[in-house]
Design a protein that fits this description.
Blueprint: H1 2-23, E1 37-42, E2 45-51, H2 57-68, E3 75-81, E4 85-92, H3 108-113, E5 122-125, E6 138-141, E7 159-164, E8 167-172, H4 174-181, E9 188-194, H5 196-203, E10 207-210, E11 213-218, E12 223-231
Length: about 230
C-alpha cells in the first residue's frame, strides 16, 4: 500500500512538472514571443538582425513590410563612414531611388526609454531634418553615436522648464521645443546578432563620389542582395 501511494505521488509530481513545462512559460520565454529576425544578404556576406517590436512597434512593422515587399532586394549601402555608420536601403546599383510608402511615425523616444540606443551594431531609421520623414532607409551604427539619441525632456505641455546646453527654456510648447532644438534623435529598432565582421568589411571599404553623392559612396558597390524574414514575431 505504501509502495502504491509512493508511485501515485511520483506520477502526480511528474504530471505537474510536465504541465509546467508545457503551459507555465511566461510569454517572454515562449518561442512564439521571440523577437523577429531577418537576414541581410549582401555581396560581402550575411548579417543577422534581431528586431524589437515591443520597443518600436510601428517602426518594426514598417521595416518588415518593406522586407515582405522585397523593396530592399538589389539596393545598395550608398553612404559609408567608417567610424560612424553604414546606410542603405534607398537606391539601386544605378543610384535610382526606390519608391516608398508614407513616412512612419517617429518612435525614437519610447525606444530609447526602453533601452535602445545608437550604439555599435544597432540599426536605426534614416531620415531628413524632418523627424517624421523616415521611410525605408536604415543605418547600422559602427560607433557609439550617443549624439543621435533623442534628448529626454520633462513631461507636460507646455514644458515648464528645460535646460539644454546652458540655455533655459520655460513654458515652451512641447512640439516647438522638440523641433527647434532637433531633440528627436533617430529611432533604433534592431541589433546585429551575427555578421558584425561583414559590417566591418563594409565600413572599411574605400569610398568616394558616386551617382548624385559627392562623398562616402563605396567605390565597389556594396549590394543588399535580399533581406528575408527568418523568424516571425
Amino acid at each position: 500500500m505504501t509502495s502504491n501511494l509512493f508511485r501515485q505521488n511520483i506520477l502526480a509530481l511528474c504530471s505537474a512538472w510536465a504541465l509546467t513545462l508545457g503551459m507555465g512559460m511566461s510569454p517572454s520565454q515562449s518561442q512564439a514571443q521571440e523577437a523577429p529576425k531577418v537576414k541581410i544578404a549582401t555581396n560581402m556576406g550575411d548579417i543577422m538582425v534581431e528586431l524589437y517590436p515591443d520597443k518600436a512597434p510601428k517602426t518594426v512593422a514598417n521595416f518588415l513590410q518593406y522586407v515582405k515587399d522585397k523593396h530592399y532586394n538589389g539596393t545598395i549601402f550608398h553612404r559609408v563612414i567608417a567610424n560612424f555608420m553604414v546606410q542603405g536601403g534607398g537606391y539601386d546599383a544605378q543610384y535610382k531611388e526606390r519608391p516608398t510608402r508614407a513616412p512612419v511615425q517617429h518612435e525614437g523616444r519610447q525606444a530609447m526609454v526602453a533601452g535602445l540606443k545608437n550604439q555599435p551594431g544597432f540599426l536605426a531609421m534614416a531620415r531628413t531634418n524632418d523627424p517624421q520623414s523616415a521611410t525605408a532607409q536604415f543605418f547600422i551604427n559602427t560607433a557609439d553615436n550617443a549624439f543621435l539619441d533623442p534628448t529626454l525632456i520633462p513631461d507636460g505641455d507646455p514644458v515648464k522648464r528645460f535646460e539644454y546646453r546652458g540655455q533655459i527654456y520655460e513654458n515652451v510648447p512641447r512640439e516647438n521645443l522638440l523641433n527647434a532644438l532637433q531633440l528627436f534623435g533617430y529611432t533604433v529598432f534592431g541589433k546585429v546578432t551575427s555578421g558584425m565582421d561583414v559590417v566591418d568589411k563594409i565600413r572599411l571599404t574605400p569610398t568616394g563620389m558616386g551617382g548624385p553623392f559627392r562623398t562616402d559612396v563605396p567605390k565597389t558597390p556594396v549590394v543588399i542582395l535580399s533581406i528575408t524574414l527568418v523568424q516571425s514575431p
